[in-house]
Amino acid sequence: MLTIGVDIGGTKVAAGVVDDNGEIVEHTLRPTAADQPDVVAETVADVVRELSRGRDVEAVGVGAAGFVDETRSVVRFAPNLAWREEPLQKKISDLVGLPVVIENDANAMAWGETRFGAGRGQSHVVCLTLGTGIGGGIVIDGALYRGRWGMGAELGHMQVVPDGRVCGCGNIGCWEQYASGQALVKEAREIAARQPERAEILLGLAGGRIEGEEVTEAARLGDKVSLAAFRSLADWLGQGMADLAAVLDPGCFIVGGGVSRAADLFLDEAREVFARQLTGHGHRPLAEIRLAELGASAGVVGAADLARRR
Ligand SMILES: [Zn+2]
């Protein structure tokens, strides 16, 4: 059976026709009109028409970067798109004439990785997508955990530092301000401002504007401040996973997102912090911490599979 998975992010709409094995048969990409909800729905309808031409497509799954309600049809709010109480499921299904399932984008990614990526065969999974923020997805007993109102697994917004950095969600000191790509850059900028003599390589590469790529490259060249920023990320990540394991006791964590491309600079250290900080450590099995395998297509593959199982 073929279904279409669509991943609506703040800047682009990615979509693919996906078969039963989670393989993408054909793929397409469009820019997102983030400030125009009707145009976003039209864009989704347009990619669905394009991808279903000459094919028998059964349903459409949509991963949306926002708070999706418990009926999986309305996006209540989105930080980076103009969705407020947006009836996305109805709009798209009216346009394409196919069954449509809406899911939070991080949940769709977690589901894709669990079914067809790094979490294959696992029944209890916590997926962390480290990008600008932290996207979270939780699989319990082989099913996505959504919470009572569909708003569960916003793992990046647990407060870890009272009076800490201001978060995009409006709160203070959220985890994603300390263990995401944006956090890495902030940390490097802060330390470099205090101790420029330890950041010679980084400042030389960045030419005044420090971004994630420069921090990664400088760390690989031995820049002390960049390495310290990665150590900070590893500490916060490992501690956060230990806290999540105290609540959820997963069999595995999956770490993905853009930052995971630099996993060689932080993941082993995060594993050590996790093992050390885990409550009851030494008397319980250690959850595996795995790198995501599907990259940017996890959301498309996951949304398509959720549509198949609707
Ligand atoms: Zn927050």
TrEMBL record:
GO molecular function: glucokinase activity
InterPro entries on file: ATPase_NBD, ROK, ROK_cs, ROK_glcA
UniProt EC number: 2.7.1.2
Keyword Aminoacyl-tRNA synthetase included in the entry's annotation: no
Keyword set, alphabetical order: ATP-binding, Kinase, Nucleotide-binding, Transferase
UniProt similarity note: Belongs to the ROK (NagC/XylR) family.
Protein's recorded name: Glucokinase
Organism: Nonomuraea spiralis
Phylogenetic lineage: Bacteria, Bacillati, Actinomycetota, Actinomycetes, Streptosporangiales
